[in-house]
Target: Universal stress protein
Amino acid sequence: MKILLATDLSLEAESAARWALDLRDRILTSDRPASLSALYVAPPEHYSVRSGEPLSENPDFNARQTHQVRDWLRTLSPTTDDIDILLEEGNPAAVITDFCQKHHVDWLVLGTSGAGAISRALLGSTAMKLAHRAPCKTVLVQPDHDTLSAAPRLSVAVDFLPGSQAALFSGAHLAHLTGAQLDLVHILHDTPTPTLNTGLVNYLSPQDLDQLTERTRECLIELGVQVKTLYPELTFASHVYAGPTVATLTHHCETQPVDLLILGKKSRSALQDRALGSIASAMARKHPTSLMLVPPEDHLDR
Model:
């Protein structure tokens, strides 16, 4: 399994590096193969203006930058000498996306600035762009979540559509590798909506909402049973809430011991995602905990 750490050597990247190392070590402990590489992308403004020579073709730069990345990794963990260090140049989001595609990366791990009044995610940072565009599972690590806990809890947002099915089975596979509990979360909309044929507002009575909640919980339990046919040792719980999706998911992450929230995503540009207001896009901006975004075409790692 290929794990790629995209790093700019920032403080945010330190948490991502520790998270990626922890993931690699947990996979190796489960007797599965795992490799971790660190990719540093020099942005265009660092090109050699005098000679016009790309920095990646400059031996002195390569040596200095590789040494800098290696020293940075060693300050984080003594078990980093086997990490491949890769140097590229160009637009970071485009280069990293292309690298993941060409090298069949399974997990891309990124640091972020976390939630804030004017966070870089809100301003369209490299991490935010990659959250939408990367063709593989993409983990956005919060600064204070540098490892999974001793008994991890993973939450998967389930809406019973194909995108969330990929997220569910990717989450189950990660729970299997890390010994985590898997929580299945579904949000019911409790706001009134107009009916298509009459235009009248359709209200759910408290009794209707209770019945719908119970039926939904039964569906989540059925999904859990299906997952356990693949991973019999897995433990899971189901949560059904009613309310606005983004606010309710955020509240779940803030009130439950969630190490990682797993969401399905659509592979498109950040601009399109913001215009369409997807849940994955909104949660990436809210960032209440570390996130793993799973493309709909994701497959189980073997």
Observations:
- The chain has a mean pLDDT of 83.
- The chain is about 40% helix and 20% strand.
- The first strand starts at residue 2 and ends at 6.
